[in-house]
Design a protein that fits this description.
Elements: H1 2-23, H2 27-65, H3 71-94, H4 96-99, H5 114-127, H6 130-146, H7 151-175, H8 189-208, H9 211-216, H10 232-238, H11 240-265, H12 278-313, H13 316-343, H14 345-353, H15 365-391, H16 395-417, H17 425-452, H18 457-488, H19 494-518, H20 523-535
Helix pairs in contact: 1-7, 1-12, 2-3, 2-5, 2-6, 2-10, 2-11, 3-6, 5-8, 6-8, 7-8, 11-16, 12-13, 12-15, 12-20, 13-15, 13-17, 13-18, 13-20, 14-15, 14-19, 15-17, 16-17, 18-19
């Protein structure tokens, strides 16, 4: 299952590479990418928290307690969800022009940007039906999870990415990469149809992939409309804080998307390049999430049963010790990755995005990518602290902590982006992201320490000093090797950039591992062994 998540992330990265090659990284790309991300945001806002926090516990309870194994209850839920999502999706498609005002900078409504605005609205109408299919995908996936079938939901998004890659290949064959004034312009109706419908088709296929597994799990869907007495009210109240948590996150992200759109729209028609916006921000974030999926999620998945057991036993001190150990293990690999991102940001950007329409603008990714390394470290620490609260079932505290994170993100983003040069929009949004999670780390660990007692603070501090020494020296070596290669080799295309990436990466890794051994950072070996076990093919999570 962990391998499925990683492959899904990597295939999503391939999709991002092709999108940049086809559309570039400026206003032209943002027109599509913003419209295509809105359906997922709206699904999470409208139903994501309800499905995960409210319906899944009900499904498991119905399977255990109902004479029919929960079939009738599951049919009611799926019928109700389909009706709700269907009606909401139709309303969203109709209201697409009004809806997009939430996500677009006011300059999109200037007369000289009418073509871009028309394309955004067209893409929104093609993509908003994804809300229905996202919702049904997650619900069907959770029905499978409740019945012990965990793999399909993890692997199905790969089918979506395969469809998306195929659509982009066709787009490149038909239209080629954007160039010149196209990099800041709108799209033709044919381009809108291909990209918009193709993106929605991927989500449809993602849902359809699950249907055979639903049947093999012994479930047959039969619509039921007898909703009274289903018992949802009690569980809804229990899951309220998790639902509010989701809403707070999505409100903050809406502000970020709107501010990101200001970076590229400021470039203006006929002025390609210059501004960085949502495409640069989101693609850099996707790359940052690859090590998160491999390292942090693997550790959190492995430790959650232990935390839950400690909570069940009433041993809150053990929860604190376990969170502290997991934090050290995660940072032992995440911090070196973050430093490597900073040192090799330009080479990484060229290897990953230096093709087609983005071949001249790949360097715009480098500052954003380097800064996201810092954000990754802070996000990791915050993410692991929340596992302790979830084990204690303290979702109300998680909500209030996340309010701090979202509030800092919004305020910092507004302050940093206002009046900033267009080229600095995406990097400044990442600084706001890092500030938000820095606040989250301080608050979450302070509250957790007050709840569970000692978090082995002195041990963590000694570990951080040794870790900083190891990554600092390894980072200096990497910088020296990179400077030496710059003096010896002229900068070429993406394939040539692989050479310094490989040489510097190898030298950096070897130096860090040697220093980790010398400084007795034992967490490095422990976490690498765990991650490799979880990624082993055929392993059931």
């Amino acid at each position: 299952m962990a391998a499925g998540t990683v492959v899904s992330r990597l295939s999503g990265l391939v999709r991002g590479i092709l999108l940049a090659a086809a559309l570039g990284v400026g206003l032209h790309a943002d027109v599509f990418n913003i419209a295509n991300t809105v359906p997922n945001m709206l699904y999470i806002l409208l139903a994501g928290g309800v499905v995960n926090a409210v319906l899944v516990p009900q499904l498991v309870r119905a399977m255990k307690n109902d004479p029919d194994g929960g079939d009738a209850y599951t049919n009611r839920i799926m019928t109700l969800a389909a009706l709700f999502l269907g009606v909401v999706t139709v309303l969203l498609v109709v209201a697409a022009p009004l809806l997009m005002r939430l996500f677009l900078d006011d300059r999109f409504y200037d007369p000289d940007r009418q073509a871009q605005l028309d394309s955004v609205v067209a893409f929104a109408r093609y993509c908003l039906p994804q809300v229905f299919f996202y919702g049904m995908f997650v619900l069907v996936g959770q029905v499978l999870n409740a019945r012990g079938r965990f793999g399909p939901m993890m692997w199905a998004p790969i089918a979506n990415n395969v469809i998306a890659v195929g659509v982009l290949v066709v787009y490149l064959l038909l239209h080629g990469g954007a160039r010149g004034p196209e990099l800041a312009g709108g799209f033709t109706p044919g381009q809108e149809l291909l990209l918009g419908v193709g993106s929605t088709a991927g989500i449809v296929v993602q849902l359809l992939v699950l249907v055979p597994y639903l049947r093999s799990a012994g479930f047959r869907f039969r619509p039921r409309f007898d909703f009274r007495g289903s018992g949802l009210g009690h569980t809804l109240r229990l899951g309220l804080w998790t639902v509010l948590f989701v809403i707070v996150n999505q409100v903050a992200y809406t502000v970020v998307v709107r501010l990101a759109s200001s970076g590229t729209v400021a470039s203006g028609p006929g002025a390609p390049g210059g501004g960085t916006g949502y495409t640069v921000y989101s693609n850099s974030f996707v790359l940052t999430m690859v090590p998160h999926s491999i390292i942090t999620v693997s550790l959190a998945t492995a430790v959650l049963p232990l935390l839950s057991q400690h909570a069940s036993d009433g041993d809150v001190a053990a929860i604190g010790r376990q969170v502290s150990r997991t934090l050290r293990s995660a940072l032992a690999l995440v911090v070196p990755v973050a430093v490597l991102y900073a040192v090799m940001a330009l080479d990484l950007a060229q290897v990953i995005w230096g093709y087609g329409a983005a071949s001249r603008d790949y360097a715009s990714f480098a500052p954003t990518l380097a800064l996201f390394g810092i954000g990754l470290v802070l996000f990791t620490a915050h993410y692991l602290a929340l596992r302790g609260f979830y084990a204690l079932e303290q979702t109300r505290r998680v909500f209030w902590i996340q309010c701090v994170v979202a509030g800092v993100n919004i305020v910092a983003a507004l302050l940093l982006v206002r009046g900033a040069p267009a080229a600095e929009t995406a990097p400044r949004l990442v600084v706001a992201y890092a500030c938000a999670y820095a606040a989250g780390v301080v608050v979450s660990y302070a509250v957790l320490a007050r709840t569970v007692g000692d978090l082995a603070g002195r041990q963590v501090l000694r570990f951080l000093v040794r870790l900083a020494l190891a990554v600092g020296l390894a980072g200096l070596l990497a910088l020296g090797v990179r400077e030496g290669l710059d003096a010896l080799l002229p900068r070429g295309g993406p394939l040539l950039a692989l050479l310094p990436l490989a040489v510097v990466g190898t030298a950096y890794l070897a130096c860090y591992l040697a220093l980790a051994r010398l400084l007795r950072i034992g967490e490095v070996n422990d976490v690498m062994a765990l991650v490799l076990r979880r990624l082993r093919p055929g392993r059931r999570a």
